[in-house]
Each structure stands twice: as C-alpha cells, then as structure tokens.
Amino acid sequence: MAEFNNQVQSNNTTSFTSVKSLTESPQLTSLPPSYTFRTSSDDEVVSEPDQDDPIPIIDYSLLLHASPDQRAKTIHDIGMACEQWGFFMLINHSVSNTILENMVDHVFAFFNLREEEKQEYAGKDVMDPIRYGTSSNVSMDKVLFWRDFLKVVVHPEFHSPHKPLGFREASAEYCKRTWKVGKELLKGISESLGLEDNYMERRMNLDSGFQMLAANFYPPCPQPELAMGIPPHSDHGLLNIVMQNGVSGLQVLHNGKWINVSSAPNCLLVFVADHLEVVSNGKYKSVLHRAVVSNKATRMSLAIVIAPSLDTVVEPAKELLDNERNPAAYVGMKHRDYMQLQRSNKLDGKSVLDKVKI
C-alpha cells in the first residue's frame, strides 16, 4: 500500500493529509500503520449505562421557570452529576431543533469542501482564531487519530470561515444560544458549590470569556478496532457543551469503566472541564472521555467550550478553602498559559491538569 504523507511544511504553513482524504483514496484498503492505536486491557472494558446508576439527566427549563423547591432540587441534581459523573445530559434547553440541525448541516458542508479550500485554515498555533487540522497535534502524535477537526474562536470576538455559504450565520446563532445556556448552567453550578450565583461569571470574567466551537469529523474506518477517533482526555475550560449527529462513538469513564453515550434528539451533553475542577478545588472532576470509530458511518460531534477569559488566573475559589481541612489542591494559572501548556503536551488523559496540581 502506498505511504501517506501526513504533514509537510511549506512557506510557514502546515499542510497535511486529512482522514477524509484517506477514506476517499482507492489506495486505502486497510488502516495505515501510523493510525494503529493500542489500548491497555483496562481500556477495553466498555459498558452500557447501568439502570441502577444511569447517566444523569438535567431539565434545563427547571433552572429558569420552576418553583423555588423544584429549582433547588435541580441545582442539587446538577451538583451531584458534576461530583459523581463530571457529565450529564441536558434536556428542554433553549436551543431549538431547527438551530441544531442547521448547525450540523453546515459543519458537514465545511468538511465536504475541497481539501485546498479547507487547507486555507491549516493553522499551527493553538491561539489561531480558525484552525483546521487532523489527529490532535501531528507534530507530536506518535500515533495519529482518526479524526479531522475545525476549531473556531467565537467569543469575545466572533470568527468564522468564509465557506461554506451560510456557515457564519448558522454558527453565530448556535454559539449565541449555547453561550447563554452555559452561563445559566454555571449559575446553578456556582450555587451548588455554596457560592453566589454570579460567582463564575464575575470571577472568570465571562463578559470577555473564551468560547470556542470545535467540530470533529470521524469518517468510516476500514479497521475501527485498530484505530482511535480521539484518545482519553479531559477538556480545558469550565464546561464543554456537545451535540452529536446520531452516530454512536462517544464514551465517558465512570467508576473505572467506559460507558457508551447515545444522546436522544435535541439533547445536549455537558462535560465538566478542567477549570471547573480547579475552581471547585477538586470537588467536581473533569470527565475523561474518548471517541471510538466505526466502519459503517461518519460521526460528527460539535463541542462548544465555555471558558474564562484568556487573561484570567484560574485558581481554587477561596470561599471553598480551609487551610487544615481543605487546602488549595491546584496552583493558579492564566487560561492562556494553560492552553499553551495543553498544546505543548500530547493528548494523554489529565496529564496537563496534573501539572497544576499541588
């Protein structure tokens, strides 16, 4: 089989062979060796959700329109979900199915552009406002991952690729709606920690907070049992709000087992991210998750990162600390520096978060 050149440098730009291009090549009959991913035996224990310990489901409408008692119970349930799972499903949110479907259509339209059109956005720096790429970090990955991605910074300054037609409008609407959802959830999370409801918004400087759209594209793989879409990792930021196109592949780690996650239509998935773990001083743990691939269908996921402003120093909330019983477990670090640290490390569990632990 012909060898595929995964990355070359030319005129200070990065060019690479996308996974989508590989799948469209008649030369591809088996998995290229550079994509062969080995897992430990522990990683291979995969389960369906347990009826006695189901994935938490949070009704967003009860945060906004419920009686005081119902809202208090919802806040308690959010806190338990963050503490026990680091993850929950969100129903009855304020993002309509029409907006969700329109966003999915435009993400697919982007990845279906000609390769040379997408390569215009093949950035190298984690701070590039629009970045198209493959794997995770091809300059460091010893094994490549079976995914292409598009990452776009949409707040505090909005960016968008100029193609496909309508992407800017669709993403602007979707990101505005999910930003509002994220801020309301953070109010409930603040209260669940015993903090003022505006604590996250005020201390994390969310008026100039960082919001990023991250679209992941996982084409059918000829040998899915040998490949990985994206390996176990946690996310930077406070929350990560995810939707999928209905094709399974997402797994979260819970009580030592990988759990398959299949979301219902019009359901959003909410992940506790690294900075929320830091602010809560470890009470709420960012969840390890991964994406496996299929030989039958293309999977797409769209993540919205809700994060502090880039110049905010993220540290444990002083209101939660006690020098004797609950001392600070993490050092403070600017969000910008945390992202650069993440970029300079390979994607490996919580290896970046571990660097700020005391």
Automatic annotation (TrEMBL):
The keyword Ligase belongs to this UniProt entry's keyword annotation: no
InterPro entries in UniProt: DIOX_N, IPNS-like_FE2OG_OXY, IPNS-like_sf, Oxoglu/Fe-dep_dioxygenase_dom, Plant_2OG-oxidoreductases
This protein's record includes keyword Metal-binding: yes
Region (Disordered): 1-51
GO molecular function: L-ascorbic acid binding; metal ion binding; oxidoreductase activity
Biased segments, Acidic residues type: 42-51
Bias (Polar residues): 1-39
Residue ranges annotated for the Fe2OG dioxygenase domain, each copy included: 208-308
UniProt keyword terms in alphabetical order: Iron, Metal-binding, Oxidoreductase, Vitamin C
Family assignment from sequence similarity: Belongs to the iron/ascorbate-dependent oxidoreductase family.
Annotated protein name in UniProt: Fe2OG dioxygenase domain-containing protein
Provenance organism: Flemingia macrophylla
